[in-house]
Design a protein that fits this description.
Blueprint (H helix, E strand, L loop, with lengths): L8 E5 L1 E2 L2 E2 L4 E4 L7 E5 L2 E3 L12 E4 L4 E9 L14 H12 L11 E6 L2 E17 L5 E12 L4 H6 L9 E4 L6 H9 L5 H7 L13 E4 L4
Parallel strand pairs: 5-12
Antiparallel strand pairs: 1-4, 1-9, 2-3, 5-8, 6-7, 8-11, 9-10, 10-11, 12-13
Amino acid sequence: MPGLLTNLKILGFQNIGGIPISIPLLFECMFNPDTYTVEHNVSFNTEQPKNGTGGDPGYNGSPPGTFSIEFTLDGTGVSSDLEIPSIPVPVQVLLFNTVTREISGDLHRPNYLIIQWGTFIRDCVLVKSRITYTLFDSNGIPLRAKVNATFIERTDSKLNQIAGMFSSPDLTHSKLVEVGDILPLIVYKEYKTQDYYLQVAAANKLRNFRKLEPGTTINLPPIS
């Protein structure tokens, strides 16, 4: 298990015009997620006149990217080898909610967030979270929980523009299929080689990888 210094961190703060106006709050994961999923969409106008055959899809824009992270909260003491006290799961959940979604401060809105894990750094906000409790003690107090959280990137963030160039390729990404996309080209853009298109086709259970349906999502897993 890696030490906490290398674990995923969520930093919450209030700001005005990009300038922090509060002391940052920190949530640090005890266990790093195995993967996270990054998704980017492109919007096209595909309307066509009645009885017409349609034309080239018109580009409408690109909405902000989103990403989802799933990680485990544990209060059983399994992390005692880190020489830190076991934090009860309800306390960990309270801290996570305080950092990511509690409305506070003069702006009357949830915190802006910076998420960092290795080379992955994003300036973002939380859009939804789901907490599933999976283990309890004899009194019904949660001992373990799974957190699935989805965030949306801040499009005007200089941090995102810089950090995006250094994101790790060893993580699961997803790609929205556009008109004219072919699997070998998608694979080449992600892995800088076409050699893995059969593995990607198998991972997505594609029956016909030569014909991709626009609007569907292709998952691009880490490949060794």
